[in-house]
Amino acid sequence: MRALQERPDTVRTHQIKSVTSGPIESPLLQPHDLAMIGFLLWLLLFVFCWPLALLALVLYPLIWLILLPFRLLGFAVEGVFSFLHALLMLPARALRGPNR
After folding, report:
1. Terminal-residue alpha carbon distance, the chain
2. Residue 51 to residue 58: CA distance in whole angstroms
3. Cα(33)–Cα(4) distance, rounded to whole angstroms?
4. Where are the beta strands (DSSP E) in the chain?
5. CA R_g for the chain
6. Which residues contact 14 (CB under 8 A, 6 or more apart)?
7. Per-residue pLDDT averaged across 14-32, rounded?
8. Whole-model pTM?
9. Distance (Å, rounded) from C-alpha 37 to C-alpha 56?
10. Separation CA 48–CA 36 (nearest Å)
11. How many CB atoms lie within 10 A of CB 46?
């Protein structure tokens, strides 16, 4: 029987979705930090151009509802690609054996 391997200490990181290159890990920014930064940016917009800030406040939920089906479609496509990846990698995993 194999001895249990110890896992090295890891730094807890949160994933931030990048627009261009996919998710990146950052130990500095957490989700509540991003929400606070967004709120402060909105307050800044409110001070400089309050009609635009109020328009953004009203339109944000509508745009979110319009984009929701595309987000659900993205989850489905990601699931299909994950399934295809697992299916294509199955022979390699089977040939690798039980050592890993």
Report:
1. 13
2. 11
3. 37
4. 14-18, 22-26
5. 22
6. 25, 26, 27, 29, 30, 31
7. 61
8. 0.51
9. 16
10. 19
11. 15
